[in-house]
Amino acid sequence: MSRIGRKPIVIPAGVTVTVDEAAHTVAVKGPKGSLNSNYHPLMTVKVEGNEVLVTRPNDEPKARSLHGLTRTNIANMVNGVVNGYEKKLEIVGVGMRCQKQGSNLVMNLGFSHQVNIPDTEDCTIVWQDPNHFSVTGIDKQKVGQYAAEIRGKKPPEPYKGKGIRYAGEVVKHKEGKAGKGKK
């Protein structure tokens, strides 16, 4: 059995989970919003009391791999509608900074133009100071994807480490050109 897949998902107070077995969908509604997701037809998802149980029909490799995945996706939905998710980012480099203007994050990244990043319906950008901001939302996948897209505007370069990076990310530095005369 999958160690992750067989764990029951505890439904906190104020959260409702509804499963439509015919359409293979799970809907989770909580204080921060609601999420819907499909799951694979091989899996069986049931709500019993204040727990969600995910089971698989057999021990074939495909069913085994889907078991833990399905359980984790539903647990992430439950956690998202209760606590939400946040991805912190930071801008490193001289002259590089950001500021919030309305619902847009305006960044100066060393280009000849400013980079504008709007809030989406799923993700909100929270500005802390000129070099730190975070992406928040209730859907873990969308928060991570949007943070990766923002980081992709100017990823950290390996020589001086300038660019946008996740908070706590360690950028592996390369050595520059070797000096003349060294052999």
Automatic annotation (TrEMBL):
It holds the Pfam family Ribosomal_L6. Residues 11-83, 92-166 form the Large ribosomal subunit protein uL6 alpha-beta domain. One of its GO terms (molecular function) is structural constituent of ribosome. The keyword Ribosomal protein applies. GO terms for biological process: cytoplasmic translation. InterPro entries: Ribosomal_uL6-like, Ribosomal_uL6-like_a/b-dom_sf, Ribosomal_uL6_a/b-dom, Ribosomal_uL6_bac-type, Ribosomal_uL6_CS. The keyword Ribosomal protein applies. GO terms for cellular component: cytosolic large ribosomal subunit. PROSITE patterns: RIBOSOMAL_L6_1. Keywords: Ribonucleoprotein, Ribosomal protein, RNA-binding, rRNA-binding. Belongs to the universal ribosomal protein uL6 family. This protein binds to the 23S rRNA, and is important in its secondary structure. It is located near the subunit interface in the base of the L7/L12 stalk, and near the tRNA binding site of the peptidyltransferase center. PANTHER family: 60S/50S RIBOSOMAL PROTEIN L6/L9 (PTHR11655), LARGE RIBOSOMAL SUBUNIT PROTEIN UL6M (PTHR11655:SF14). NCBIfam families: L6_bact (TIGR03654). Part of the 50S ribosomal subunit. This is Large ribosomal subunit protein uL6. The lineage of its organism: Bacteria, Bacillati, Bacillota, Clostridia, Eubacteriales. The gene is rplF.
